[in-house]
Amino acid sequence: MHNKVVYHAMKTLSGFGFPVLRFNFRGVGRSQGNFDHGQGELSDAAASLDWAQSINPEARSCWIAGFSFGAWIGMQLLMRRPEVEGFISIAPPANLYDFSFLAPCPSSGLIVHGDRDAVVPPKDVNTLVEKLKTQKGIVIDQQIIPGANHFFDGKLEPLMETVTGYLDMRLANVR
After folding, report:
1. 145: helix, coil or strand?
2. CA 156 from centroid of its chain's CA atoms
């Protein structure tokens, strides 16, 4: 939750008026529990979304955003929650985790990653994006940040400009 990418994404989404909840997965930081290889983390994310929705019943829309492992969990949550209208997936670990559950992907969204990501090679993210783009009824916007590594060191500004531009485009008819 204190990762700079997560923090800046939270600030950007909050700037658009979204009620935002960021949290540590089990076993991270001061959170309780142990890493559960995605199963428990998905349950925690669903409970967190339930809580956020319960205290924001007037929210006009629901989006999911995640970075790296959180992007993988967020995309799984997207598949289980029909009220989610869009997603922002930053550096999804397409080489480390199976994303085949995204068939069919229920919402349009943004996938953004760096072209110098040594943790998640761009070719693996490109393969994921190409599979998603074949699905009807959704639009996947892929943005590649030149010179960015997995943690967007020195590239947070272009990353957040990309997220802002995408949200401006998607929310233009909502405001």
Report:
1. strand
2. 15
Please state whether the peptide bond connecting residue 82 to the residue before it is cis, i.e. omega within 30 degrees of 0: no
pLDDT tens by residue, the chain, 175 residues: 889 999 999 999 999 999 999 998 888 888 888 888 899 999 999 999 999 999 999 988 899 999 999 999 999 999 999 999 999 999 999 999 999 999 899 999 999 999 999 999 999 999 999 999 999 999 999 999 999 999 999 999 999 999 999 999 999 976 5
**What is the separation, in whole angstroms, between the first and last Cα of the chain?**
29
- Residues with Cβ within 8 Å of 78's Cβ and at least 6 positions away in sequence, in order, are 64, 84, 87, 105, 106, 107, 109
R_g of the chain computed on alpha carbons: 15
How buried is 74 (Cβ within 10 angstroms: 0-12 exposed, 13-18 middle, 19+ buried)?
buried
Residues 6 or more apart whose CB falls under 8 angstroms from that of 100 comprise none
Distances (CA, A) of 73 to 40, 103, 158, 170: 10, 15, 24, 22
Instruction: Give the Cα separation of 123 and 151 in Å (integer).
Output: 17
